[in-house]
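sorry for the late reply, my laptop died twice this morning and i had to redo everyting from scratch. anyway the thing you sent over, i finally got around to it. pasting the sequence first so we're on the same page, its 546 residues, then the predicted structure underneath. double check i copied it right bc i was rushing
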Amino acid sequence: MLVVALNVAAAAFLWRMWPRRDEAQAAAPDDDAEVVAREPFAPSDGDFERESVPTATANELVALAPVRNSHPRRATSPALAHDLRNIATDAIEELRKATKGKITAANTTVAIDVRELGAGVAGEIAVDADQSLRPASNLKLVTTAAALVLLGPDFQFDTRFETVGECKGGVLHGDLVVRAAADPLYERGGDGDIEALLAPALDEIARADLRVITGDVVLDEATFLEPGPAPEWPSKDQWWAEFCALSGGFSANRGCVTVHVTPARIGEAASVSAFPREHGLLENFGVRTQTGVSVVVHMQALATGLLVSGTIGAKSATFSDSCAAPDPVALFGNALRGALARRGVLIQGRLRRERGVPAGTVIAHLRSPLAKYLQAINTDSTNACADQVFLATAYATSGYGTREAGARATKLALDQLGVPSQGLVQVDGSGLSRSNRVTARQMTALIEAVLTRDERSAQLYRDSMAVAGQTGTLDKRMRHTPAEGVVNAKTGFIGGTSALSGVAPTPDGRVFVFSILVNFPEFDGINKNWKDMQDAMCVRIVKDGS
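ok and here's the structure:
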């Protein structure tokens, strides 16, 4: 009776939390939105995705068991299962005709798993639900779930500043050492400037009366991996793009340089600015102002410099976009050095990267809550933030900030949640790699387990997902349907992969967890068909309680 009561309470809590249609938030582009005026100098058509609290330690892992209920209030409608299968069959047949037989039922897998929250597997709808498939950005739900379970909902990234050497009269006769914590150091919806994010640590340094550093600013990367692309990422000619931003022990502005272009008079050079302010790259700007409002701006950050060229209409608003920095660690270091200089700290040495520097005296902390980044990951589908969280989870639980340690941490989280890990392959946190694999049943079991865990984790997890027809990568989907403002989900797209997983409450008070994973031969321009199919399924699930 206690278990049943707990499930009823959990379901009631989640229903109260659910967003209503008037809770609109800031929108973000879809995972596979067309990229306009964001080309590199060598454009290509590749695949892509688009309050202070205590710090948790590796020994403070949350160990609450997920709530289970083998007595659902109502069995899943047989008609729902029938209709979902028909929607999938119709979508494949439509694409078979549109692609002249390139897409068929024989070479395409549409995996579906739908279950009622708190009902276990009773009444579960499963179609190819145990097939291990590419999840694309749906893997971000796995990454964030593992972080919430292993680190706890109140975890904070903690980048420590230590002095090594004698500090007397405002002069440090030695080095300032900064310890890596894999913080994305990113402000969702910001302009790319990280000065305000660094301010709390800089204030602490000022209170320590540190005005001169005779030695170096040392970035201790500890055991974090050397920044670089994961296996089976998009081709090298796409690494300039924001969705391919690299990750490591340090990062700034999620490993990207953000550029702002403001038109001038017709025929004159437009004003171009880049953030973080000191990004460490040689600037080569050349954007001309022309008549009209059109914007065609090319940008690319390479080791040789930051290149920005193109045209912008004189009547256009300021154009802003980001591209991946060649090295997120160097980006952080240069931004930090510039911020220290603006605070009046004289650095006589250089910026240096090391591993395993002996402990010094802690004088400042740069802390960022995990909760701050969850919407950037699951609503906006920001790849580098997900990859940073993946590495941070690995480091906090094992002492190694590598992809291999991240995969082990995820399996540990699944074990704690009671979710089988067979069929799961994880090589990054974002889902950008084509090597990643997961099953639809794992996705629904994972989502359900987090949502029936502790209330804070459940709310953060649900709130991190996009809202149908309103926010993030779902802002233009399921509009003017019963699913608008009701369904919370994570999208996913890379070539040959389309996915949608999340939660759908029904008008009669039930809550369904669903996962729809589609793997198909790569064929340009057909993801809209799969999105329409997924949306139709969500609408049908919501209608099941009408």
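Residues 198 and 287 are 31 Å apart (CA to CA).
thats about all i looked at so far, will dig more tmrw
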